[in-house]
């Protein structure tokens, strides 16, 4: 029914969760005493869909996971020629490609079409792939030497740290509740990892893979688990569009060294530095060209930290602007919104931002429309999102629309209008067919409800899946693995060619909720946007 629920399965949790519209950048690095300069950024992936987990392959080449034809494979980028090639042709999807020490081969986590997640090696001479680790579901990893791998292994819906010797097949568990960032510490025999103890700051710790001894190095920035080593004493990390450094025994806290938002970067995740510390790879989310950078960064940060309101609390925040609108009380109406409110057309067509801009827009709106009234016909709430089906009367004209409100306790943070669109067919028919096939776990009937170029998004427009082959591959695994799978519609808004459903889904005895916005064209579902 929804791509979102793929993240709930242990064998898919780490990979599917990261399927956003990320891109890979290459920067020059220059160190002078304690100063670090980042310059000459190049957008090397420039590809719709998932491009992530970059690493250096020698001094002239870069490896990263990249989407092509709805599947994620290993891409190789040549720095000198600025060219991109793919080095594998399996039916599965590959993630976290790394050079294998002392071999003409690359390793990667592969998600096969049978649903199994395994670590493979890929021979660069003949393209053959070989399974490296049996019986352990590796999610993230790094090479300690040509014989040993330090990895995060999925066990009981959490990541635990294992050291595996691929030569003799032995493995040892040395830590629990770890993150995804593993790096060989320069000029040492140690590997760093992220330790996530409940209700405490995340820690960067060192591990001696030979004896399992681990020690605290430093804390990460809040809610940030991606780091890399510039040298044996300096760490790099990113948050939003900014790059930070922490020099051990010198810096008391993380220090900002670069603002990369001019490259369109809003959220830095993976980082890698080459052996001589002169080049930096970054994987990051990009902003919309029409969105003001500073406003977008503020919204992103608030989204991470805002507490979840109850349904009644979220609805009450939205309700505060209804009566002042109908009474044309401009000041009270504007004060129902956050000072940095962002106003869009669905999904993310930027209109304007800021309470002052909103106030001026509605001042003109009231001037141009002598009569104006809004009536809420239907309302659905999920976490801090409220979607209202609204009947808007302007003078003698009546308009039906839906509006997505993102709120916190202080007001409406964003307002996204979904306009009515003429349609020649009833979109509910195909959405209901899809629901029926989903509950029967009938993959053939399920895929028939989508267009060949179907795309799934996380609101507002982070692409999570593309193409009917990708949909079939992913849902086939779900249908096979979850016998009690069931989706129930709790609330529905139908607006032109769009069907907006609040859904209750049962998976392995547990219940989850989300909102799905289906768009139907020529009788088939062409796009789905999930609000999680």
Automatic annotation (TrEMBL):
Instruction: Provide the SnoaL-like domain boundaries.
Output: 433-526
Give the matching InterPro entries: NTF2-like_dom_sf, SnoaL-like
Q: Which UniProt keywords are given for this protein, alphabetically ordered?
A: Signal
Gene3D superfamilies found in the cross-reference section: 3.10.450.50
Q: One Pfam family this chain carries? A: SnoaL_2
Note the superkingdom of the native organism. Bacteria
Signal sequence extent: 1-20
Protein name per UniProt: Nuclear transport factor 2 family protein
The species this protein was found in: Winogradskyella marincola
């Amino acid at each position: 029914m929804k791509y979102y629920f793929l993240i709930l399965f242990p064998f898919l949790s780490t990979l599917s969760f990261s399927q956003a519209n990320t891109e890979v950048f290459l920067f020059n690095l220059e160190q002078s005493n304690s100063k670090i300069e980042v310059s000459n950024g190049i957008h090397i992936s420039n590809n719709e869909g998932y491009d992530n987990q970059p690493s250096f392959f020698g001094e002239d080449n870069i490896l990263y996971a990249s989407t092509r034809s709805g599947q994620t494979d290993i891409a190789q980028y040549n720095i000198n020629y600025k060219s991109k090639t793919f080095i594998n042709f399996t039916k599965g999807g590959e993630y976290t490609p790394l050079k294998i020490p002392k071999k003409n081969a690359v390793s990667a986590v592969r998600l096969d079409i049978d649903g199994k997640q395994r670590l493979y090696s890929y021979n660069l001479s003949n393209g053959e792939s070989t399974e490296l680790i049996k019986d352990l579901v590796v999610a993230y990893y790094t090479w300690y030497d040509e014989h040993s791998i330090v990895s995060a292994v999925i066990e009981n819906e959490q990541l635990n740290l294992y050291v595996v010797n691929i030569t003799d097949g032995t493995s040892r568990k040395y830590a629990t509740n770890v993150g995804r960032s593993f790096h060989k510490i320069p000029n040492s025999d140690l590997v760093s990892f992220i330790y996530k103890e409940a209700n405490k700051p995340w820690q960067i710790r060192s591990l001696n893979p030979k004896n399992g001894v681990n020690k605290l190095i430093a804390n990460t920035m809040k809610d940030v688990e991606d780091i890399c080593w510039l040298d044996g004493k300096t760490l790099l990390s990113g948050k939003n569009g900014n790059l930070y450094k922490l020099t051990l025994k010198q810096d008391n806290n993380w220090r900002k060294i670069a603002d990369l938002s001019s490259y369109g970067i809003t959220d830095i995740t993976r980082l890698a530095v080459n052996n001589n510390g002169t080049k930096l790879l970054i994987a990051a989310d990009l902003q919309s060209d029409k969105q003001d950078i500073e406003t977008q960064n503020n919204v992103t940060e608030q989204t991470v930290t805002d507490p979840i309101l109850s349904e009644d609390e979220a609805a009450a925040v939205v309700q505060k602007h209804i009566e002042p609108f109908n009474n044309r009380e401009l000041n009270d109406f504007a004060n129902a919104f956050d000072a940095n409110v962002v106003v869009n057309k669905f999904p993310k067509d930027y209109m304007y931002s800021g309470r002052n801009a909103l106030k001026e827009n509605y001042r003109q709106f009231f001037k141009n429309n002598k009569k104006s009234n809004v009536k809420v016909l239907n309302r659905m709430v999920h976490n801090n999102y409220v979607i209202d089906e609204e009947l808007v009367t302007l003078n003698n004209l009546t308009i039906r629309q839906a509006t997505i409100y993102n709120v916190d306790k202080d007001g409406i943070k964003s307002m996204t209008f979904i306009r009515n669109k003429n349609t020649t067919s009833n979109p509910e028919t195909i959405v209901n067919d899809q629901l029926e096939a989903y509950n029967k776990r009938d993959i053939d009937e399920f895929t028939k409800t989508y267009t060949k170029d179907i795309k799934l998004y996380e609101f507002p427009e982070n692409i999570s899946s593309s193409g009917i082959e990708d949909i079939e591959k992913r849902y086939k695994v779900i249908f096979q693995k979850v016998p009690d799978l069931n989706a129930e519609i709790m609330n529905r808004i139908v607006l032109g060619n769009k069907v907006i459903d609040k859904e209750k889904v049962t998976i392995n005895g547990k219940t989850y909720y989300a909102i799905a916005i289906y768009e139907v064209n020529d009788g088939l579902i062409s796009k789905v946007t999930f609000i999680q």
